[in-house]
Amino acid sequence: MSLFRTIFQSPVGALPLVASDTGLVAVLWPDDAPDRVRLDATREQPDHPVLAQAIVQFAAYFAGERTMFDLPLDPRGTDFQRSVWTALLDIPFGETRSYGDIARAIGRPSAVRAVGAANGRNPLSIVAPCHRVVGSNGALTGFAGGLETKRWLLAHEQGQGQEPRLL
Q1: Which of 8, 13, 76, 131 has its CA 20 to 30 A from that of 61?
Q2: Which CATH fold would you assign to the domain 79-157?
Q3: How do residues 20-63 score in pLDDT, each as one tens digit?
Q4: What is the pTM of this model?
Q5: Would residue 130 show up in a list of annotated catalytic residues for this protein?
Q6: 140: closest CA among 162, 155, 125?
Q7: Does domain 3-62 have CATH number 3.30.160?
Q8: Which entry of 115, 130, 133, 154 is annotated as an active-site residue?
């Protein structure tokens, strides 16, 4: 299956977007570890319909005009990982949940560490909002885009007027 790629210039950096003909496969970070989200070879195609739709929605999200994404999704992972990533989609804009909350939401209350691992491999950053997951005490914890970016995204969603910082 072919994968297509483009770059979206966002206030939190240049985000590589990857799509298949089925849907959005990945939203990566500028300095993403190559083994965090494993993908087959991609080819540049910014006019791919899924990527074009994603660009419009990301622009609206960062402009404060969109609170959720409406894109076909095609994430690659295990059944457990996909259940975690699906649960992320249920976290309301501007709110947070703990890893324990996500574990309970998927019916695996003792799988908190596994939820954390799956969250760390979330290929759909921002769309499946892993940045909205925090520690049980509310502390910001690991994030593939970096804690500064996580803080920025949460402040953006909570209307705290973060200034854009182009990377």
Answers
A1: 76
A2: Arc Repressor Mutant, subunit A (1.10.10)
A3: 999 999 999 988 888 889 888 889 998 999 999 999 999 999 99
A4: 0.89
A5: yes
A6: 155
A7: yes
A8: 130
